[in-house]
Design brief:
The complex is a heterodimer of chains A (about 325) and B (about 290). In chain A, about 75% of the residues lie in helices and about 0% in strands. The C terminus of chain A is likely disordered. Chain A has 13 helices and no strands. With about 290 residues, chain B is mainly α. Helices cover about 75% and strands about 0% of the residues of chain B. Chain B is globular and about 55 Å long. The N and C termini of chain B lie far apart (about 60 Å). The model of chain B has no long low-confidence stretch (mean pLDDT about 90). Classes of the chains: A mainly alpha (about 325), B mainly alpha (about 290).
Chain lengths: ~325, ~290
Amino acid sequence: MIRALGIAGALVAIAAGAMLLAGANPIMGFYALFEGALGGKSQIAETLVQTTSLLFPSLAVAFAFRAGLFNIGAEGQLIIGGLLAGLIGARLDAPGFIAIPILLIAGAAGGALWSSIAGLLRARFGGSEVIATLMLNIVAALLANYLVVGPLHSPGAAGPETAELPHGSWLPTLLPGTRLSLALPIALVLALVLRYLFDRTVFGYELRAAGSAPEAARRAGINLAKTAFIAMALSGAMAGLGGATIVTGVLHRFNVSLSPGYGFIAIAVALVGDLDPLKIIIASFAFGILQSGALTMQALAQVPKDVVSFVEGLAILALAARRFVAERLRVQPAE
Amino acid sequence: MSGLQDFVMLTLVKAAPLIFAALAGVICERAGILNIALEGQLTVGAFTAVAVSFATGSPLLGLLAGVLAGALVGMLLGVAATRFGVDQIVAGTGINLLAVGGAAFGLTVVFGQPGASSEVPALGSTGENVLIAFAFVAALLLHVALYKTPWGLRTRASGENPRAVRSAGVDPRTVRLIATALGGALAGLGGVYLSLGELDLYSDGMTAGRGFIALAAVIFGRWTPFGATGAALGFGALAALQFVLQRTGVPSELMQALPYLAALAALTGIAGRARAPQSDGVPYTE
């Protein structure tokens, strides 16, 4: 806990230094960041929207991590999930209680399909899921751009996007006048389900065994290839579901730039949250503050918003090194 | 005939940065470090070169600074992975975020505007041609270094069987750290080529995923300098072909996706057995 606070303090200091470098007043900068993220009802709602959009891919990344897999492709799975939800949603005119489940399931299926390509390469050919998911991220973005601009272009779409979904297909709003939708409770329930799955089910146990001690798991009769494939597919489904909630709950259409890199920031969120679904909820909120406050910070305090991704990158490095430092502090090497 | 000449030239122009980055990937992976932060090294190299050329008025100093900055970013990965036990993939992802955010931030600090820098003194077409030629020289040098020198033997052994390297009295972690520095320098040079060679400015997103195409080239080229260079040339030709096919209705996205699809296909072993070094991406601990 103290060490985590130490890292947080160091990151704040670095961010403050960066703000000074940009000729801005750090106190103003942080004030604007929090004002923009938490300064009122609509700001808090927007922060929760960002929290939600981060929570899905973060749970996806953590789920794969637990099974010993690197899903660097949450970004691509999120895009494909959103793409399917948008393409179907723009063409589907049905009552909400039919349309919304269809679109969410389509999103999850799209994400699962996309990650399964990597899962299949890993399970069947032993190919690195890291490389596969990295490549699939870019292919996803290109495919989405091609489809919505080209053959599946919907009339009434201006840029690289689909037409707007009919109102009936929008996820119900939690707070009138904001973009905060039912997606948040869905994400929270998903986190709780995952927590239960990890701690209380045989499948969760097998996943963790395959991830932490693959050789022992194999000897105990767990089919590693099959476990890897299923874990990868489910991980993709979560990211794809997240993409679908952005389409049905936030933008109400698919746009190729629907994600400012949620799938990558998710890796930081999953690490900050120690791969524990409940802690990941809190971590998503913290990163949600950064995402939603960044623009206000840029506008009010003239701090370039990119300082946020800079700090997020540092956070990944610092947090990943933390375990090592912790081990060193606890166990003195024998040499 | 001049059409063919143009096509070859365009292929070389598009391939050069990929060759630098792919060679960087080869060095690192042969030493056992899976460097998915090539994109970040390209970005930082490209930005630093422009910033220093802007500040000093000397594109040559810019070039040196870009190479140095790339090496430092490479070493950040190396130090994180070999000294702090940070997972290589996690560190690489963090460095990519850090680099892209840092360059965008630096752009506002140095040039006072987001998006793109102003035009700065650049290397010109002579400089560009020298860099293109050097890409091939670098491939040759790396081939000789990897296969004919004790350094190369240590590097390759660190990627295959680091314990054996340790038994021979050399610390594989140091070998890997040196590989990430050299790789970072090469990728940084690739970035310099993009900003000061091909153009005379830096703009956000100008590396456009070349760091990932380079990773694909490494796999397709089976982790050898010549193989990776050949793959990078092929991918450069695809990029050049895009200009030719622009008006023929072949979707440009398909052409852009081909390198990545090729890498995915290579992972299935469809083009013969593509085997990564035994300990590629595997941390070495004592």
